[in-house]
């Protein structure tokens, strides 16, 4: 029997678990506050940001949204981040990526106060995570750790393969998997578009994390019996639906499910966890900035 890893259920548990901490902070006069900044008219980015605001409202986190025209001067974005850095009611800042080409992405990432960098993308926070004392773990890999934990997937001593080496998913995921901390200790291989014979790597893996952004390209014949498959991919493919498309992962679900020991679906797997861990990081940020202790 293959376990279908239910990201919606685990994410709901994470959100429930935050309730007491948010209550404590709010009672102490420090309602957690998350700012989202959008400088794009890409419908997917707009959807992501509005989902994050809805998530905040559900758990009692204040959200503030700042929207900038995609053709606004880059300085407007830098100034917005500076203002939010200085605002004591804002504990977490999320600049929705990608930003337009005329904006210096690295400058934006560097300009967010590391204490409010709930995405975990500031170089200081990346460094802290790599050094093994993370302040904020990036939301997607952190969410995957929580999923694996919830389903008792043993990573210690396991062979893990991460497909994809992006700064937001692949690299931090691999980094968390190799750490000595609980939920780590895996022997970890990172694959990418220049990897020779990807299937040889994935077949040797006990845990495969697919984060390449290529629709359904990890197939059952690339996996071994009993492997845990985590599908990060969210790909729009044309389909005969009302919207004209559907979302699929990087994994061909049916063929992989026939082989895997456990597998995340798309949607309903990693996506809800990414959102839940943003709330988690915002609560942690609030606690650290205000000095009000909470249990997370
Ligand atoms: P990027 O495009 O930044 O990185 C993709 C990585 O996959 C690159 O390292 C690339 O290699 C590698 N890759 C591409 N094609 C292949 C291939 N055929 N074989 C092996 N490796 C390949 O993507 P992201 O990391 O930002 O996102 C990955 C996917 O996850 C996307 O579908 C994205 O939408 C989704 N996503 C989902 C989230 C969620 O919450 N569910 C959150 C974030 C992302 P190279 O470096 O050599 O180019």
Automatic annotation (TrEMBL):
GO terms for cellular component: cytosol. NADP(+) binds at residues 164-166, 234. Keywords: Amino-acid biosynthesis, Histidine biosynthesis, Hydrolase, Methionine biosynthesis, Multifunctional enzyme, NADP, One-carbon metabolism, Oxidoreductase, Purine biosynthesis. Its EC number is 1.5.1.5, 3.5.4.9. Residues 5-119 form the Tetrahydrofolate dehydrogenase/cyclohydrolase catalytic domain. GO terms for molecular function: methenyltetrahydrofolate cyclohydrolase activity; methylenetetrahydrofolate dehydrogenase (NADP+) activity. GO terms for biological process: L-histidine biosynthetic process; methionine biosynthetic process; purine nucleotide biosynthetic process; tetrahydrofolate interconversion. Gene3D superfamilies: Leucine Dehydrogenase, chain A, domain 1 (3.40.50.10860), NAD(P)-binding Rossmann-like Domain (3.40.50.720). Pathway: One-carbon metabolism; tetrahydrofolate interconversion. Residues 138-289 form the Tetrahydrofolate dehydrogenase/cyclohydrolase NAD(P)-binding domain. SUPFAM superfamilies: Aminoacid dehydrogenase-like, N-terminal domain, NAD(P)-binding Rossmann-fold domains. CDD domains: NAD_bind_m-THF_DH_Cyclohyd. It catalyses: (6R)-5,10-methylene-5,6,7,8-tetrahydrofolate + NADP(+) = (6R)-5,10-methenyltetrahydrofolate + NADPH; (6R)-5,10-methenyltetrahydrofolate + H2O = (6R)-10-formyltetrahydrofolate + H(+). Homodimer. NCBIfam families: PRK14167.1. Catalyzes the oxidation of 5,10-methylenetetrahydrofolate to 5,10-methenyltetrahydrofolate and then the hydrolysis of 5,10-methenyltetrahydrofolate to 10-formyltetrahydrofolate. This is Bifunctional protein FolD. It comes from Halomarina oriensis. The gene is folD.
């Amino acid at each position: 029997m293959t376990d279908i890893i239910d990201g919606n259920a685990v994410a709901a548990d994470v959100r429930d678990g935050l309730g007491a901490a948010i209550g404590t902070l709010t009672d102490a006069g420090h309602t957690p506050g998350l700012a989202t900044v959008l400088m794009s008219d890409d419908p997917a980015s707009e959807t992501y940001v509005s989902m994050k605001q809805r998530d905040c409202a559900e758990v009692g986190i204040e959200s503030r949204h700042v929207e900038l025209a995609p053709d606004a001067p880059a300085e407007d974005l830098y100034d917005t981040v500076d203002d939010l850095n200085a605002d004591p009611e804002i504990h977490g800042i999320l600049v929705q990526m990608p930003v337009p080409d005329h904006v210096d992405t690295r400058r934006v990432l560097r300009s967010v106060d590391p204490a409010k960098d709930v995405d975990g993308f500031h170089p200081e926070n990346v460094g802290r995570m790599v050094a093994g004392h993370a302040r904020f773990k990036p939301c997607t890999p952190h969410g995957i750790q929580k999923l694996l934990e919830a389903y008792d997937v043993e990573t210690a001593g396991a062979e893990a393969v991460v497909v994809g080496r992006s700064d937001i998913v692949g690299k931090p995921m691999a980094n968390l998997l190799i750490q000595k901390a609980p939920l780590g200790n895996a022997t970890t291989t990172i694959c990418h578009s220049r990897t020779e014979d990807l299937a040889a790597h994935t077949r040797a893996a006990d845990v495969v994390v697919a984060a390449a952004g290529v629709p359904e390209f990890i197939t059952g014949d690339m996996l071994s019996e009993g492997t845990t498959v985590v599908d990060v991919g969210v790909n729009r493919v044309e389909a005969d639906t009302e919207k004209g498309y559907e979302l699929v992962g990087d994994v061909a679900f049916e063929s992989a499910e026939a082989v895997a020991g456990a597998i995340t679906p798309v949607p309903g797997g990693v996506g809800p966890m990414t959102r839940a861990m943003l709330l988690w990081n915002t609560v942690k940020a609030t606690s650290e900035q205000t000095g009000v202790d909470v249990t997370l």
